[in-house]
Amino acid sequence: MKKTIALAAALSALAAPAFAGDIALTINGVQPEGGKVLVSLQTEEQFMTREYAASDMLDGAQAGTLTTTLKDVPAGEYALSILHDANGDWKMDLSEQYLPQEGWAMSGEVKMNRPPQFSDARFTVQEGAQAVSLDMSYPE
Predict the structure, then answer these.
(1) Which one, of 78, 81, 66, lies nearest residue 26 by Cα?
(2) Comparing C-alpha atoms, which of 108, 123, 3 is closest to residue 53?
(3) Hey, CA dihedral for 49, 104, 93, 39, is it positive or negative?
(4) Is residue 140 scored above 90 in pLDDT?
(5) In whole angstroms, what is the distance from residue 38 CA to residue 40 CA?
(6) What is the DSSP letter of 137?
(7) Per residue in 41-70, pLDDT tens?
(8) In CA terms, which of 55, 60, 81, 117 is 20 to 30 Å from 68?
(9) In 10 A of CB 38, how many CB atoms?
(10) In whole angstroms, what is the distance from residue 136 CA to residue 106 CA?
(11) What pTM was computed for the model?
(12) Angle formed at CA 53 by CA 9 and CA 92, multiple of 5 degrees
Protein backbone atom coordinates (compact mmCIF):
# COMPACT_ATOMS: atom_id res chain seq x y z
CA MET A 1 0.00 0.00 0.00
CA LYS A 2 2.81 2.43 0.93
CA LYS A 3 4.60 1.66 -2.36
CA THR A 4 1.42 2.39 -4.33
CA ILE A 5 0.94 5.77 -2.62
CA ALA A 6 4.60 6.69 -3.11
CA LEU A 7 4.47 5.66 -6.78
CA ALA A 8 1.26 7.64 -7.36
CA ALA A 9 2.79 10.73 -5.70
CA ALA A 10 5.96 10.42 -7.80
CA LEU A 11 3.96 10.04 -11.04
CA SER A 12 1.73 13.03 -10.26
CA ALA A 13 4.80 15.15 -9.57
CA LEU A 14 6.19 14.21 -13.00
CA ALA A 15 2.91 15.07 -14.72
CA ALA A 16 2.65 18.53 -13.13
CA PRO A 17 3.90 21.40 -15.33
CA ALA A 18 7.10 23.14 -14.31
CA PHE A 19 6.20 26.74 -13.49
CA ALA A 20 8.60 29.20 -15.00
CA GLY A 21 7.39 32.04 -12.85
CA ASP A 22 6.14 35.47 -13.78
CA ILE A 23 6.49 37.46 -17.00
CA ALA A 24 6.85 41.20 -16.36
CA LEU A 25 5.47 42.86 -19.49
CA THR A 26 6.15 46.46 -20.53
CA ILE A 27 4.01 47.89 -23.34
CA ASN A 28 5.56 51.02 -24.89
CA GLY A 29 3.97 53.70 -27.08
CA VAL A 30 0.35 53.34 -25.97
CA GLN A 31 -1.88 56.08 -27.42
CA PRO A 32 -4.77 57.47 -25.33
CA GLU A 33 -7.58 56.06 -27.47
CA GLY A 34 -9.80 54.75 -24.66
CA GLY A 35 -11.17 51.25 -24.51
CA LYS A 36 -9.02 48.42 -23.21
CA VAL A 37 -5.58 47.07 -23.97
CA LEU A 38 -5.98 43.30 -24.19
CA VAL A 39 -2.94 41.11 -23.46
CA SER A 40 -2.91 37.44 -24.46
CA LEU A 41 -0.18 34.83 -23.99
CA GLN A 42 -0.86 31.84 -26.24
CA THR A 43 0.57 28.44 -27.07
CA GLU A 44 0.83 27.36 -30.71
CA GLU A 45 -2.50 25.53 -30.43
CA GLN A 46 -4.18 28.67 -29.03
CA PHE A 47 -2.55 31.17 -31.41
CA MET A 48 -5.01 33.61 -33.02
CA THR A 49 -8.00 32.07 -31.22
CA ARG A 50 -9.95 33.23 -28.16
CA GLU A 51 -8.06 30.71 -25.98
CA TYR A 52 -4.99 31.70 -23.97
CA ALA A 53 -2.50 30.49 -21.37
CA ALA A 54 -2.52 33.85 -19.53
CA SER A 55 -4.11 37.23 -20.12
CA ASP A 56 -4.79 40.68 -18.73
CA MET A 57 -6.93 43.72 -19.56
CA LEU A 58 -5.52 47.23 -19.06
CA ASP A 59 -7.00 50.74 -19.28
CA GLY A 60 -6.43 52.15 -22.77
CA ALA A 61 -7.17 55.78 -21.88
CA GLN A 62 -3.68 56.74 -20.76
CA ALA A 63 -0.77 57.38 -23.08
CA GLY A 64 2.78 56.16 -22.70
CA THR A 65 3.87 52.92 -21.06
CA LEU A 66 1.71 50.25 -19.46
CA THR A 67 2.98 47.37 -17.35
CA THR A 68 1.48 44.11 -16.18
CA THR A 69 2.65 40.78 -14.82
CA LEU A 70 1.48 37.41 -16.09
CA LYS A 71 1.76 35.06 -13.12
CA ASP A 72 2.84 31.41 -12.82
CA VAL A 73 3.45 30.75 -16.51
CA PRO A 74 4.64 27.19 -17.28
CA ALA A 75 7.87 26.86 -19.23
CA GLY A 76 7.35 26.48 -22.97
CA GLU A 77 6.89 28.19 -26.33
CA TYR A 78 4.41 31.08 -26.49
CA ALA A 79 3.38 34.15 -28.47
CA LEU A 80 2.32 37.43 -26.87
CA SER A 81 -0.42 39.43 -28.61
CA ILE A 82 -1.64 42.87 -27.60
CA LEU A 83 -4.71 44.64 -28.99
CA HIS A 84 -5.72 48.19 -28.11
CA ASP A 85 -9.45 47.62 -28.47
CA ALA A 86 -10.47 51.28 -28.52
CA ASN A 87 -14.06 50.66 -29.63
CA GLY A 88 -14.76 47.75 -27.24
CA ASP A 89 -15.87 45.21 -29.83
CA TRP A 90 -13.35 42.56 -28.60
CA LYS A 91 -11.76 42.06 -32.02
CA MET A 92 -9.13 43.61 -34.28
CA ASP A 93 -10.71 45.99 -36.77
CA LEU A 94 -9.20 45.58 -40.24
CA SER A 95 -9.24 47.74 -43.37
CA GLU A 96 -10.43 46.45 -46.75
CA GLN A 97 -6.79 45.46 -47.36
CA TYR A 98 -6.83 43.50 -44.06
CA LEU A 99 -4.48 45.94 -42.32
CA PRO A 100 -4.96 46.64 -38.58
CA GLN A 101 -7.13 49.66 -37.78
CA GLU A 102 -6.40 49.55 -34.04
CA GLY A 103 -3.20 49.52 -32.02
CA TRP A 104 -1.40 46.21 -31.74
CA ALA A 105 1.86 44.56 -30.73
CA MET A 106 3.15 41.01 -30.95
CA SER A 107 6.23 39.19 -29.76
CA GLY A 108 8.85 38.06 -32.25
CA GLU A 109 9.32 39.39 -35.77
CA VAL A 110 5.73 39.69 -37.00
CA LYS A 111 5.05 41.88 -40.03
CA MET A 112 1.52 42.76 -41.01
CA ASN A 113 1.93 42.12 -44.75
CA ARG A 114 0.32 38.69 -44.18
CA PRO A 115 -1.61 36.97 -41.39
CA PRO A 116 0.62 36.45 -38.32
CA GLN A 117 2.26 33.05 -37.94
CA PHE A 118 3.11 31.45 -34.59
CA SER A 119 6.62 30.69 -35.86
CA ASP A 120 7.23 34.44 -36.33
CA ALA A 121 5.82 35.43 -32.92
CA ARG A 122 7.10 32.61 -30.72
CA PHE A 123 9.45 33.05 -27.81
CA THR A 124 10.60 30.68 -25.07
CA VAL A 125 9.54 31.05 -21.47
CA GLN A 126 12.21 29.45 -19.29
CA GLU A 127 12.44 28.72 -15.59
CA GLY A 128 12.43 31.85 -13.40
CA ALA A 129 10.98 35.31 -13.79
CA GLN A 130 11.61 37.22 -16.99
CA ALA A 131 10.85 40.58 -18.55
CA VAL A 132 9.40 41.28 -22.00
CA SER A 133 9.02 44.69 -23.64
CA LEU A 134 6.86 45.32 -26.72
CA ASP A 135 6.23 48.45 -28.78
CA MET A 136 2.70 49.28 -29.94
CA SER A 137 1.94 49.97 -33.60
CA TYR A 138 -1.00 52.16 -34.59
CA PRO A 139 -2.52 52.82 -38.04
CA GLU A 140 -1.49 56.09 -39.63
Answers:
(1) 66
(2) 123
(3) positive
(4) no
(5) 7
(6) B
(7) 999 999 999 999 999 999 999 899 999 999
(8) 117
(9) 20
(10) 8
(11) 0.82
(12) 170
